[in-house]
Amino acid sequence: MKTIVISEGNIFIKGEFDKTFENEKYVVHFNTKTGLEVLKGKDGKDPFMTNLPLLIDVGIMGSCLNACSFCYQGPHDEPHMTLENFKSIIDQVKDHTNQVALGGRGDPNLHPNFKEIVEYARDNMVVPNYTTSGINLTDDQIEISKLCGAVAVSDYEKDFTYDALNRLMDAGIKTNIHFIFSNPNFEKSINMLAGIDVWDGKIDIEKLNAVVFLLFKPQGSGKYRVDLIPTRDQIKTFSGMVFTPYSKFKIGMDSCLINHVLEFANPNHIQRMAIDTCESSRMSAYISPSMKLVPCSFADHSEYGIEMTPKYGIEFLWQNSFSFERFRKRLKRNPNCCPVGL
User: Starting from the edge strand earliest in sequence, which strands make up the sheet with 26-30, in order?
Assistant: First the structure.
């Protein structure tokens, strides 16, 4: 571990880091134990894009047992990603990429090679994280999850949700709730920010790390669920509370939601340092179970996805493909936009 002090105006960030990537344009410091990441441009400005993604959403799951009506991945099934393909991803990016978010269609902890996947990532100093419904979560899976940076449980408001949350937290794992910010979930979202225990004591909120709000996007199986799209007024009300919450846990948002929140909110300087608008094609990407590189998991895989081959790997496609460049051009014109249009 190296202790480094980094200045940002009149603010100084002191941290311990065990992984550093540096080139002529920028330097990235990362702590594989705490997840603290600091990206600094050599010219004093944040770089628009990095040479490779700092985070990759890896779709290791090709099918799901839950068949949720709002799933953005849609009902299509395909084989799970093979362990060999996952290892090839890590081998290509391990010096630069700091985290992989294990996902796809279904619960990553149900992948037949879940243990080997998590271990291989961690052995190569790439921190694995994943989101699960919590259904059929086993003690062995919880033990393996101790190697992850964090585990998120999607809030289905079911007993298996609360059981998974409590067991993960009791195991000392950094545990979050992923909560879809949608029209029908608006009141519950506001109550969370107001400090109300919306789970009525069913989980130990003193141990909960964070609630991460994910904007509902009409995609996949939820393409026609216009009833779930939050209204402009709902987003405005949420925006007025999200930077001054009364909750006992931390609050996070995905980039899709923060793009809308910034239209109404005025976060302070320190909060702005922690805010990322859309990073797709700039600092993050998605890889499908069939090994297609896509700027964003919400992007149409047929339109934007590119087949990875031994000749044309992640770095080449990341830097040279038309679909990634198209994403970047849109984000250069408007950093707060969604290139997919959601």
Answer: 19-22, 26-30, 37-41
Question: 199: domain range?
Answer: 55-333
* Residue 46 counted as domain residue: no
192 and 152 fall within a common domain: yes
Helix axes 232-239, 186-193, angle to 10 degrees: 10
Report the C-alpha gap between 198 and 81 in whole angstroms: 37
Please state, in angstroms and rounded to a whole number, the distance separating the CA atoms of residues 317 and 3.
35
> The whole model's pTM is what?
0.93
Are residues 60 and 197 both part of a single domain? yes
- pLDDT tens for the chain, 342 residues long, are 777 666 666 667 778 899 999 999 999 999 999 999 989 999 988 899 999 999 999 999 999 988 788 888 877 789 999 999 999 999 999 999 999 999 999 999 999 999 999 999 999 999 999 999 999 999 999 999 999 999 999 999 999 999 999 999 999 999 999 999 999 999 999 999 999 999 999 999 999 999 999 999 998 888 899 999 999 999 999 999 999 999 999 999 999 999 999 999 989 888 887 888 999 999 999 999 999 999 999 988 888 899 999 889 999 999 999 999 999 999 999 998 999 887
User: Residues 149, 33: one domain?
Assistant: no
114-123 and 83-93 are packed helices; what angle lies between their axes, rounded to 10 degrees?
10
